[in-house]
Each structure stands twice: as structure tokens, then as C-alpha cells.
Amino acid sequence: MSQPDMSQIIAQAQQMQAKLQQAQSELIASSVVGEAGNGLVKITLLGSGEVTAVEIDPKVVDPEDVDTLQDLVLGAFQDAHNQIGQLAKEKMGPLSQGMPDMGSLFG
């Protein structure tokens, strides 16, 4: 059995690292919209986890029922968070073979 070429192994590791960094950059630059209540509440979330927008349809604003609105906002956030997790798995999955599941960090 021949010894592996160390320079080839290093080059492959560098290529893998570059691809991983590119996938991470793409993920961070990505944006998703989570929805709840059939679109009555929407939250826009960046891949970095930053919330950039919250939209609430005036139909769900009832001063007598703040709990429902809070549940809808939470549901929209969870939907967006789950989408970011799925996006992380799609972008990072092929690169993380043999590594811990990177997508699990997001969802």
C-alpha cells in the first residue's frame, strides 16, 4: 500500500476549507421569511440569525387578545428559524461529511 501524498492531502483540505467558507458566507447572506396564521404574521430572518423585519396584519391586532398575537409572532420566528436550519443543511451538508452535523447548530 502506498503512502498518501501529503501535499495532495493539504491541497484537498484547503479546497474543502474554501468551499466551507463560501457556503458559510452564502448562508449568512441568505434571508428567509417565516410565516404564521396563514401569512398574517411574517418575520424576515437572515442566515446570521438577525431579524430584519416583522410584518403584522392589522386584522390580528386585538388589544383583548395579546396572547394570540404573541403566539403568531413566535410561530413566524420558529418557521423562519427552521428554514435557516434547512438552508444550512443544504449548503453545509455535502461539506460536512465526516464532521458533526453543522445544520443542527441552526435547528
TrEMBL record:
**Which GO CC terms are listed, alphabetically?**
bacterial nucleoid; cytosol
Q: Does the keyword Cell membrane apply?
A: no
* Keyword field: Cytoplasm, DNA-binding
This molecule's function is given as: Binds to DNA and alters its conformation. May be involved in regulation of gene expression, nucleoid organization and DNA protection.
Give the PANTHER family listed for this entry: NUCLEOID-ASSOCIATED PROTEIN YBAB
Q: Which family does it belong to?
A: Belongs to the YbaB/EbfC family.
Partners and quaternary state?
Homodimer.
What is the protein named?
Answer: Nucleoid-associated protein HW450_06400
Record the organism: Corynebacterium hindlerae
Q: What broad taxonomic lineage does this protein's source fall under?
A: Bacteria, Bacillati, Actinomycetota, Actinomycetes, Mycobacteriales
